[in-house]
Amino acid sequence: MFVSPMKLHDGISAVEVPRHVLVVDDSRAQRHMVSMHLRRWGYRVSESESALAALQLCRSADVDIIISDWMMPGMTGLEFCREFRTLDRERYGYFVLLTSKSEKTEIADGLEAGADEFLTKPVSTNELRARLRAGERMLAMQAELLAKNKVIVSTLVELQKLYDSLDRDLIEARKLQQTLIRDRVRDYGWAKVSLILRNSGRVGGDLVGSFRFDEDRVVVYSIDVSGHGVASAMMTARLAGFLTGSSPEQNLAFQTGLDGNHVLLPAAAVVDRFNRLMLDEIQAEQYFTMVFAIVDRRTGRVDLVQAGHPHPMLVRQDGRVERLGQGGLPIGLIDGATYEQITVQISPGDRLVLVSDGFTECPLPGDRDFGEDGLAESLRRSAHLAGSDLLEAMIWDLTAQAGTDSFPDDVSGIVLDLLG
């Protein structure tokens, strides 16, 4: 008996109902002879005396195998096969044509119409059984593939649900991260600070910001946490908590003096605090680069530390661009690392520009990158623009040279304009 195996739980096998075979022939004697053998072998058999009636039956019932005569009045077996292949069926149907034709052109026509096998009349019992066994193997493989495809589709649906859920969470995380730089332009009276942050993914590891210490001193900083994604975003959120002007007791840049008031530490001491925090307390498999700068309008000085971050740029009022800093070590890599603090004089009309390596290391066509030269040129070209417009112009230059606005790394920048 030809039957279809079906797997149940715990490896137990069960048996489905026998294959349904449809015999189509205008000769009643021929139909009965073929059907007799099929029933003896355990098949469930239906008969039809015309191709039109058989086609109608195939529309309403599941038929596994069709054995059809080629030459019949009205619709031929060849035409029936062609129409059968157009039906919307979930499972494959194995089609055998009975024919007295043996010419290669006729066989080619049958194959093109969708026939799987051919039997020559009068039908040999052994040959019929062999053809059916071949059909059984094909149907079994097709059923197995169909079952596996259903599992794959089901798995993909579940994965899509998980992805959609994760994507919604990342969108919310992005909104929260953007609140870290809610004020894109901050006016401190004698200085104006402009910020920009564009993540390469839903969330990123860049952070820029500023805060006022007193009426004469403003701090600006730019941070780039190693890696991408959620872990880097969580680290930037934690670091932002240590650089908030609204909570001096948490700010690593402040120290409580003997009189109980907060004192602003030197830039080098602040960076050293962050290095010890990363190595002694946070102990994460991450590090970050940073520029931390203190701008004092009384002295006209900028005290800054560059810790592995791209070089700060100072754009003079006359348009000259100066590169500041000596490079330095990233934060969180080496215990006891020392950080050099430099001092530069600035005047009203000058501007301090800090950017992440998303600018300087952005790849361009021709195996090169934007670089600090490209950054300096962009600053010179757009020096007449206000701070926020200058940052947008830099993004525009980067996009134009890279040929895309989808950058491989987070892009962030901060501009401090020293006013009169």
Describe the structure.
With 420 residues, the protein is an alpha+beta fold. The chain folds into two domains: 146 residues, Response regulator (Rossmann fold, 3-Layer(aba) Sandwich); 236 residues, Phosphatase 2c, domain 1, CATH 3.60.40.10. Helix content is 37%, strand content 26%. It contains ten helices and 22 strands. The strands form six sheets. A six-stranded antiparallel β-sheet has the order 8-9-22-19-16-17. Strands 4-3-5-6-7 form a five-stranded parallel β-sheet, with helices on both faces. It has a five-stranded antiparallel β-sheet with strand order 10-11-14-15-18. A hairpin with a 5-residue loop joins strand 1 and strand 2. It starts with a strand and ends with a strand.
Helicity, as a percent range = 25-40%
What shape does the CA trace take? Answer: rod-shaped
Mean pLDDT: 88
CATH superfamily of the largest domain: PPM-type phosphatase domain
Strand content: 25-35%
| Number of domains as seen in the coordinates | 2
Terminal-residue CA separation: 98 Å
Largest sheet: 6 strands, antiparallel
CATH top level class name of the largest domain = Alpha Beta
Query: How many β strands by DSSP?
Result: 22
Low-pLDDT segments, ≥5 res: 5-15
Cross-sheet strand order for the largest sheet: 8-9-22-19-16-17
Radius of gyration: 39 Å
The name of the CATH topology of the largest domain is Phosphatase 2c, domain 1
Secondary-structure arrangement, i.e. CATH architecture of the largest domain: 4-Layer Sandwich
Tally of DSSP helical segments: 10
Structural class: alpha+beta
